[in-house]
Amino acid sequence: MNISAMQQARVAAPAAATTIKMHTPEPSFQEREFAGTVGTVTVDNPKIVSRNVNVYYGDKHAIKNVSLDVGANEIVAMIGPSGCGKSTFLRCFNRMNDTIDSCRVTGEIRLDGEDIHNQKLDVVQLRARVGMVFQKPNPFPKSIYENVAYGPRIHGMTKNRAELDELVQLSLEKAGLWEEVKDRMDQPGTGLSGGQQQRLCIARAIAVSPEVILMDEPCSALDPIATAKIEELMDELRANYTICIVTHSMQQAARVSQRTAYFHMGDLVEVGETSDIFTNPRHKLTEDYITGRFG
Amino acid sequence: MVEQHTVKRFDAELNNLRSLVLKMGGLVQEQIEGAIKALDDEDLDAARHIALRDQLVNRYNVQVDEDSVNLLARRQPMGSDLRLIVALEKTVADLERIGDEAAKIAQMVLRIYDSGGTAPNHGLLRDVPAMAELALRLLTGALDAVARMDTDKALEVARRDADLDEAFGAAIRHLSTYIMEDPRNMGHAINAVFILKALERMGDHSKNIAEYVLYYVKGKDIRSIEGKQATDLAVTSA
Questions:
Q1: Is A40 inside any structural domain?
Q2: What confidence tier does A25 reach under pLDDT thresholds 50, 70, 90?
Q3: Domain B8-236: CATH architecture, name and number where available
Q4: CATH code of the domain containing A106
Q5: Is the CB of residue B112 less than 8 Å from the CB of residue B122?
Q6: From CA A236, how far away is CA A174, in angstroms rounded?
Q7: Is A192 inside a domain boundary?
Q8: What is the pLDDT of residue A18?
Q9: Would you state the pLDDT for residue A286?
């Protein structure tokens, strides 16, 4: 018997016509004021501590009183619909928002206990400690070698060419790109494939020995294989670095991160262990987003 | 109905899966009723029909498995959608086992009445109707809980499985008195034990199904937690 005939077979389906009540953990966003982040924003061993961070673009309140710790050697994923503020929040961690004139950031962000908005702090040094990888691979229009050597050179990190060569090789090895490019170091970085370019950008970020790597949708321009290589790389890098990743792919967030933060319209709605967020989120908005119920 | 996904087709697929599970549940209920009626009526044809129809139950199981795997692969469900599919997938595994137990009873009917031997002393089977009713009530409760994702109903089923276990214990004690009375009852007493055990197992499977409902709604697996603690968790946690 085929299954359609089977379905037509007379069977006493109990309550087949009754409706299933969707599990609603919290009242909907429209029904109530935002009551604060669900979940624990603090960690035992924080690398970055942020408290009551607000970001304004002119009159627009883009980040609303967000507090979130990032633990040492952990990968934190930030997810949420477009315009929710996740990239804006990520960019607070190395003061990239300073580069936007209309942008104003308030609140407290500490890296290893040090206020990153401290007047005495050199923002160039900060960005060496907190590196960044962007959505679109953006290698300099220079050779593969020069792309990686640029940072260490301007920061005066090496004494001579031999040391610099060694650092370039080490960085490319850590980024999983060395074997693919070692015979063409003098060729332009822009000639590599998209996935290779992105790993070159990661090598460039690593070369200045950062403590934190911020990744803003690092795989959205890559194919699945290149994406898998970056994700594998992130897992290896976690041993030595702290990583924050903004991603539109929930599957990617679920795969790579230990903790996940869900943003919605500038609020940090929920933060928690990644395994909890994707199987049993506590906030209705998180549930609606991860199950694809947003209208 | 499960609704309001941006991708409407996903709603339809989830609803189809759930209604397939409920149809399978309805068929399994009929299998139990049919097996018990065949026993009561000493109806060999009906018993053969029930035993054969177990294949249909299995087909439902296969179909739900296939649909679930497809949904997992193609929709990559998260949150309550993921829990719903996992809960339904586990539910059909238990329904299939309940179906097996019903078929087992049908087979015992054939063994008892188609063997050419003497018919059993009716006292040997006197506990079967009450236990069957209890087993059916548990299954109906579990299926109602699935249909409405009703935690109160699920908790009631999980609790009342103990009644069936108790009834099984009592029935075994009754049987042993018949055996002591007349050792010639031994053969049919063993057949009766198989039937009673099948009914007792149905209760365990219904309890499992009730627990999957609690897992779906509460997001927690309460099987590893015993007694009052589990009840408290199921009632209170959001």
A1: no
A2: low
A3: Up-down Bundle (1.20)
A4: 3.40.50.300
A5: no
A6: 8
A7: no
A8: 43
A9: 95
Average pLDDT on B210-232 reads 77
Give the span between the Cα atoms of A136 and A201, in whole angstroms: 10
| Structural domain spans, chain B | 8-236
This model of the complex carries an ipTM of 0.78
Interface membership of B147 toward A (CB under 8 Å): yes
Burial A208-227 (b: 16+ CB within 10 A, else e): bbbbbbbbbbbbebbeeebb
Question: Which residue among A20, A282, A293 sits closest to B18, beta carbon to beta carbon?
Answer: A20
B-chain residues near A11 (CB < 8 A): 23-24, 26-27, 30
Point out the residue among A9, A15, A295 whose CB comes nearest to the CB of B6: A295
DSSP 8-state symbol, B42: T
At A164-196, the pLDDT tens digits run 999 999 999 988 899 999 999 999 999 999 999
Predicted pLDDT at B146: 96
| Domain extent for A83 | 45-139+211-290
* Number of compact structural domains in chain A: 1
Q: Is the pLDDT of residue A32 over 60?
A: no
Helix/strand number for chain B, H first, E second: 7, 0
What integer is the mean pLDDT of B11-25? 96
Burial of B121 (C-beta count, 10 Å sphere; 0-12/13-18/19+): middle
Residues on chain B touching A292 (C-beta within 8 angstroms) = 5-7, 10
pLDDT at A244 over 50: yes
Beta-carbon contacts below 8 Å between A and B: 104
Q: Supply the DSSP string of A121-134, one letter for each residue.
A: S-HHHHHHHEEEE-
* pTM of this structure: 0.82
Please give the residue of chain A at the shortest CA–CA distance from B62. A3
Give the pLDDT confidence score for residue A8 in this predicted structure.
45
- Chain B hits for A18, CB-CB cut-off 8 Å, are 147-148
Is B83 a residue whose pLDDT tops 70? yes
Domain assignment present for A23: no
Residue A145 lies in a domain: no
| Helix locations, B42-185, DSSP H | 44-75, 79-113, 128-148, 151-181
What tens digit of pLDDT does each residue of B159-195 get? Answer: 999 999 999 999 999 999 999 998 888 889 999 999 9
Q: Chain A: give the shortest CA distance to residue B9, in Å.
A: 12
Q: What backbone phi and psi angles, to 5 degrees, belong to B202?
A: -55, -40
Chain A nearest CA to B126, separation (Å):
28
